[in-house]
Amino acid sequence: MKYDIQDLLIDVIEESLKGLGMSMSVRPAYLDLPGDPRFGDLSTNIALQLSKQVSRPPRDIASDMVAAIKKRLAESPAGVLVEDIRIEGPGFINFYLSPNYFYSEILEIVRTQGEALKSAKGKSLPVLIEFVSANPTGALSVAHARQAAVGDALASILDFMGFKVTREYYLNDEGNQINILGNSVELRMKELAGEKIDFPEDHYQGDYIYDIAKVAKAGLPQGIELRDFAAGFILDVIRKELDDFGVKFDSWYSQKELGKRGLIEDALDYLKKQGFVYTEDGATWFKSTQFGDDKDRVVIKSDGAYTYLAPDIAYHREKYRRGFKWLINFWGPDHHGYINRLKAAVEALGNPKDSLSIIIVQLATIYRDGKQLHMSTRKGQYITLREVLDEVGKDAARFFFMMRRTASHLDFDLDIAKKHSSENPVYYVQYAHARICSILKNSPAASGACDIDLSVLKEKEELALLKKIWQFYSVLDICLATQDPYMLTVYLQALAESFHKFYDLHRVLGTDDKLTRARVTLIEAVKIVIASGLGLLGVSRPESM
RNA sequence: GCGCCUGUAGCGCAACGGAUAGCGCACUAGCCUCCGGAGCUAGUGGUGUGGGUUCGAUUCCCACCAGGCGCACCA
Asked: What SS3 class is residue A542?
């Protein structure tokens, strides 16, 4: 991007305030895209905010501010990009940007084939995004699927914004659940051998246990225990599922290794030295209440075994030691009660509280034929990622999982996701992309961009489309601030809509040369932004459908 | 009982604390001699209840009502 006009204006506004003897930080929240295009391209309510503080009517303050801002802008190279500043309504200051600004942004996007859309805001900060991390005891469920879609998309977005992102899967490859898995397979092997067995209810009931038992019966590799073999078997399945879903992890972190390297003991020793660990009732406790948790938490049970928290503390200690400055964890809603104790641990280890972001990914309820599908992990009856993938495909699945805020429940209607019609938002967006590709294919005018004059784009729909393209930057900022790719799905639908409206009223090809070249450039920019956006979400960008 | 999420049009959803609360589906009426009709245009219709904070509340706070999920020396 040539000018980050939003940042630039925030600076100017803050300086102007200082000059007027008022001071207030103009966080991006105070300089905003107005919902309605009639109120300009950027808008600030800061005069309204200041009104009480300085006991003056908002419009008076706004009037002083506008004068000061105009003066400063006149000295700035970007001053020409602001066409008008108006005080409107109760005291909003609305900035009307020059069409030239939008033209130059569009040219830049096309000239760089989308490179200009990227930013360096992340300043190469090392971020570790941990998600899915399902126990290798069964196939991935829809809950994991949503985590996979959201986590992967946020990782892509942060990467696009200049963070140094690592995607990690934490592998619970030892502990109770793995033991139970091993037992489950062992019992099924005996059963297959004709023995009469009593299969406990808390064991894994699914048919896949038989599959593993059959393979294991043929003989295990040297030195491999049955439970590890079983976990490895399932892990291969999980990897394949994620691969087919288009999610690639940079790193798989083994809990077992953590123990082997003595890092759990190390971490607890460290906490002990800091005075955050004590013994009571034969168990060892972490003083999490000291960091805002409701009650202290056991880390070593009275039988001598670690609770889940102990390796997790060590694991997060390692994340920081490996150099990551920002940790983002995606968890299912069942882990909600676990947030405070892990945050407490991170703080006790001497890290800033807000360097750990925990995002709860709410469950998706699956509907088929208008009816909700119920699931139960214990009985081995749950909708798997594989089933959703087979039924609706990767594109629809990924897009649908992000169509609601991550923290909100999601109703996933398989029938709609399958439809190739206007009811299906994925196809609405993809259709716009395909349509543009089709036009560009028929276009004699290669865009070439550099010497193209976009100032002939004056129609209402053209200007709306220009501005909508430009809003991509703000949408990414929102995704970063909320740590949620959700807004991107909303934006892409709006962009596609804006394009379809333009297309319906104006011809791209077959008008006069100058106009055709300008419009070809415009729609190419739309194509690039849609392609970037869909790419970040992990959805394909078909050139024809 | 405690915690989290959600209550907006017939249905599914949107709106950093802002300006006349938007969109899709459905329903009604239109738009293909023309770059892809998987599209576009128009019409109908709405903030769970009661307080509070604010210049301004769908949004924040409190209480209540309704729905979903979670609450271990499980992972």
From this structure: coil
CB of A202 lies under 7 Å from some atom of strand B: no
Q: How far is the CA of A423 from the C1' of B28 (A)?
A: 19
- Distance B19 C1' – A57 CA (angstroms): 17
Residues A147, A360: Cα–Cα separation, whole Å: 9
Spanning CA of A422 to C1' of B28, the rounded length in angstroms is 19
Provide the pLDDT confidence category of residue A57 given band limits of 50, 70 and 90: confident
State the nearest residue by CA to the C1' of B38.
Answer: A421
- The whole-angstrom distance between residue A125's C-alpha and the CA centroid of its chain comes to 17
Residues sharing a CB contact under 8 Å with residue A167, sequence separation 6 or more, in sequence order: A129, A131, A151, A152, A155, A247, A248, A249, A250, A251
What is Dmax (Cα atoms) for chain A?
90
User: Which range (A53-62, A128-137, A491-500, A525-534) has the least confidence?
Assistant: A53-62
Q: Give the range among A1-5, A33-37, A72-76, A528-532 with minimum mean pLDDT.
A: A1-5
What b/e sequence results for A479-491 when a residue is b if at least 16 CB atoms lie within 10 Å of its CB, and e otherwise? bbeebbbbbbbbb
- Go through the domains of chain A in sequence order and give each one's CATH number: 5-97 (3.30.1360.70), 131-251+362-418 (3.40.50.620), 421-537 (1.10.730.10)
Whether nucleic acid strand B comes within 7 Å of the CB of A512, the answer is no
More confident position, A229 or A445: A229
- Please say if the pLDDT value at position A425 is more than 60: yes
Nucleotide nearest to A307 (CA to C1'): B73
For A393-402, what is each residue's pLDDT tens digit? Answer: 899 889 989 9
ipTM at complex level? 0.88
Nucleotides in chain B with any atom closer than 7 Å to protein CB: 3-6, 12-20, 24-26, 34-41, 54-56, 67-75
Task: Compute the mean pLDDT over every residue in chain A, rounded to the nearest whole number.
Answer: 88
Distance of CA A509 to CAs A75, A184, A189, A342, A544, Å?
41, 66, 69, 59, 19
pLDDT band at A448 (very low <50, low <70, confident <90, very high): low
Report if CB A442 to strand B is under 7 Å. yes
**Residues in a beta bridge with A230:** none
Give the nucleotide at minimum CA-to-C1' distance from A519: B35
Q: Is the CB of A2 under 7 A from strand B?
A: no
A410 CA, B6 C1': Å apart: 10
Q: How far is CA A230 from CA A171, A195, A308, in A?
A: 14, 21, 21
Residues A17-38 have a mean pLDDT of 74
Cβ contacts of residue A128 below 8 Å, gap of 6+? Answer: A166, A168, A319, A322, A324, A326, A327, A328
For residue range A304-357, what is the model confidence (pLDDT) as tens digits? 999 999 999 999 999 999 999 999 999 988 888 888 899 999 999 999 888 998
- Taking alpha carbons only, the member of A184, A4, A173 closest to residue A78 is A4
- Of A395, A387, A393, A392, nearest to A414 (Cα)? A392
